[in-house]
Amino acid sequence: MALVDANYKFISVDVGSMGRFSDANIFTSSVLAKKMNRQSLQIPPPEFLPVFQQPLPYIFVADEAFPLSENLMRPYPKKSVVGNMENKIFNYRLSRARQTVKCTFGILASCFRVFRKPFEIKVESVDNVVKAACVLHNYLRKETIISNNITEEIGEMPDTQLLPLANNNCRTGSNAFLVRQKYTDYFNTVEVYLGK
């Protein structure tokens, strides 16, 4: 499980959980979830977005396996999307943002071909190989980004680039629903919808 940024770099990874564990269980027992619950991640305060009159908090984008919270957005459930175009647009935008994670893993697998087939090493060594590959991936992303065959320099990577992930037993608060509704309203403004 990983948290990535918009530049396809790993911010936090959790390696070593059993494949039979669900993403939600892995996340709720992670250090990242615990820090989110304690509000000790130093997330910047909410900011105004263009053509929107309300400040919106910074959020992590997740899929339906994760809990909804003020800083963790998940899509609307299917029953809330049927016949509701606004919620459908929100889910579409969230899905587009989640593609960054899939692309990051794709880039990792294309650079480090060890991920293209089953590991042929001791089980105890797999965690270290995956973590080392993530660190090397970030280093390569730090040096250059290649997009459309153009190489651009990017800024410095923080020293704490990888944090281990680990129980969130809290229910979704009403503020989380309000934040999701604000993002739904934002995504459905004419300017955003038309890509302006």
Can you tag this structure with a few keywords?
single chain, 196 residues, alpha/beta, two-stranded antiparallel ribbon, 9 strands, nuclease, HARBI1-like, nucleus
Describe the structure.
It is found in: Nucleus. One of its GO terms (cellular component) is nucleus. One of its GO terms (molecular function) is nuclease activity. This protein has 196 residues and is α/β, with parallel strands linked by helices. The chain has seven helices and nine strands. The protein has helices spanning 23-28, 31-38, 78-81, 85-111, 123-143, 174-187, 190-193, and strands spanning 2-4, 10-13, 47-48, 55-56, 60-61, 72-73, 145-147, 150-152, 163-164. Strands 1-2-9 form a three-stranded mixed sheet. Strands 3-4 form a two-stranded antiparallel sheet. Strand 3 and strand 4 form a beta hairpin. The protein is elongated and about 55 Å long. The two termini are 34 Å apart.
